[in-house]
Design brief:
The structure is a homodimer. By secondary structure, chain A is an alpha/beta fold. Chain A has a six-stranded parallel sheet with strand order 2-1-3-4-5-11. The first copy, chain A, has a four-stranded parallel sheet with strand order 7-6-8-9, sandwiched between helices. Chain A has a two-stranded antiparallel sheet with strand order 10-12. The radius of gyration of chain A is 26 Å and the shape is elongated. Chains A and B meet through helix 4, helix 5, strand 2, helix 6 and helix 11 of A and helix 4, helix 5, strand 2, helix 6 and helix 11 of B. The structure holds a DNA duplex.
DNA sequence: TTGTATGCGTTATCAA
DNA sequence: TTGATAACGCATACAA
């Protein structure tokens, strides 16, 4: 057991409540007593117990965060954005990963409930549809990152997936590409769906009917880079000259496959990713992508959470993605469609 | 306020302790009562409070983890290893980042102390020297990842930095390189020091006196990839034909600089990294590196923590790194020293 | 087998 | 300005 306000009170010859007030800089306390107690507390290495405080206050100053995996290079900055905003407001973040497993995610949610977190921020969930069931009667605010579901009890901040994806494909179209592929992934169903829609919208806007053969998705591969890798062959087979990838990791896998096959990027084949992870500027050649404001996304989610905790009714937020043109995309050269298909 | 055992007790017409026992599958409880209470609890959406439990038990089932940044691609799997082992033992992990800032790290430690975590796992700290001061009198076990300090109160599990670095350089030597550079970083002083020593040891073992000019470190750049990028010019200037980098991120920065300069890797210049992050297999060309068992490192740290919590006296652990030869290293071709220097 | 009482560390209400 | 007391939710020692 560590030293408590009782120990200090005893040593100081005052009551525990006096100690409590002195330590909290409570107004109703004598300046002399306050100083004396504070010094004594320091001497005795007193460390206040958040546990006890939480029980009494019915508040834990903790925001739970559930996400699929920390290894995803997209996540780090988002988490740090959440943490930054949390710290500034006197909160801390309790992170739990689902590892893309529904049971684990359920366990994570239950854990956070038991720990009485004040709010929950969710990203890359595998069971959004179950959230109302879990949180329907609880008053714990929920903020979701990168989803746009219209549930009443759930609020969100998201990148504008559809339009961002659209602008990625428009960039490819503007470079003369017509056979444009999409590499999707299955373990982020919602985001994948939005980005696919943006892809289709962009195509249809210029009168190109989306060709299912150009849409690659693997239901057997979980690893994003490997999905990108596996997509090259089939995409080439149906004449793609450019590809929009679900994210940068996928794009890097695809880029790597091109390298191994001796297919020159961007001369013969254009690739555009999504996220703008740290590595994107260092691939060879540097990756053209859609930048998500990752840190800001996290910050905004936390700010929205704080507003909810303050009883406010914040607006859901949709922030734009930004096209970052680097060197994996280029103008389609005449004859390249065939060269690529060969 | 959520529903408590008192609410259930009232509704069931029994005492709170009976409810407590029923819910805990305590031996001293009637099977009928147990079942009835458990069903009632479910109906009432009862969620036990870890906060209250923690206060009563003087135990939080929480391991605090302090690290520099989650964005470092090295960290993700380590954290997940810790989390995995923690979950299996009924614990959860409370992560806090220092963002390479000493004040932030101190704040993180204090936060964890206030929250009464049962143990602390540290990685990439900026103030190891202060840990005894913070934790000297506290009984909270500390496990450090990737440090090898001989403090009594602190235990560690680490990759064998020195020997792993040595084998990296030996690989370069075996390929005929003699002018081998080292790219170090400053915000992981300890690891950097160990790896640098391994580098020097390997050189000296074959009778090469380490040349300070071949050791690149930037005190102004924090970003690892940028350090690697900035190192190319000076390293080339002093005739390096191969470089051992502090980590893969650094190596990727260097690789990118080579690409921009038109310097062919590995034909004209060899690069070896450290960590084997997920991206390492997908760089162009794929990166030769030293593999750290990241997930395992995390798992081991947590297992050591569990042993400490069980009152045992576990041995510190040093696990080997493993050379992974991919394609950024090659035999030194005659004449290349000059070509590289030019 | 079940109930009663107490403690865990803190804050807040009320009284002095 | 300070002190006594209750409350937060749970587990447990002890009593019935």
């Amino acid at each position: 057991m560590s030293v408590s306000i009782y120990d200090i009170a005893k040593k100081a010859g005052v009551s525990p409540s006096t100690v409590s007030r002195a330590l909290e800089d409570h107004p109703r306390i004598g300046a002399t007593t306050r100083k004396r107690i504070q010094e004594l507390a320091r001497e005795m290495d007193y460390v206040p117990s958040t546990v006890a405080k939480s029980l009494a206050a019915n508040k834990t100053w903790t925001i739970g965060m559930v996400l699929a995996t920390i290894s995803d290079p997209f996540m780090g900055r988002v988490i740090e954005g959440v943490e930054q905003a949390a710290i500034e407001a006197g909160f801390n973040v309790f992170i739990s990963t689902s590892q893309n497993d529904r049971q684990r995610e359920i366990a994570a949610i239950k854990m956070l409930q038991k720990r009485r977190v004040d709010g929950i921020i969710v990203i890359a969930s595998h069971l959004f549809d179950q959230y109302p069931r879990f949180f329907g009667h609880s008053k714990v605010p929920i903020v979701i990152i990168n989803e746009q579901e219209p549930w009443e009890t759930m609020h969100f901040v998201t990148v504008d997936d559809v339009h961002a994806a659209q602008s990625a494909v428009e960039h490819l179209l503007a470079s003369g590409h017509r056979r444009i592929g999409y590499v999707g992934i299955t373990n982020r169903p919602k985001s994948n769906q939005y980005r696919l829609r943006g892809y289709q919208d962009a195509l249809e806007a210029v009168g190109i009917a989306p060709d299912p053969a150009l849409i690659f998705t693997s239901h057997t591969i979980e690893d994003h880079a490997k999905v990108g890798e596996a997509s090259l062959k089939p995409l080439l087979a149906c004449g793609a000259t450019a590809v929009f990838c679900f994210n940068d990791t996928t794009a890097i896998g695809l880029l790597s496959a091109c390298y191994k096959r001796g297919l020159s990027v961007p001369d013969k084949f254009s690739i555009i990713g999504f996220d703008d992870i740290d590595m994107a500027a260092y691939t060879i050649p540097p990756l053209t992508t859609i930048r998500q404001p990752r840190f800001e996304l996290g910050q905004r989610a936390m700010h929205m959470m704080l507003a909810l905790l303050a009883g406010q009714k914040p607006e859901n937020q949709i922030v734009p993605g930004e096209l970052v043109v680097r060197q994996t995309t280029a103008r389609l050269l005449p004859g390249n469609n065939r060269a690529a298909a060969g």
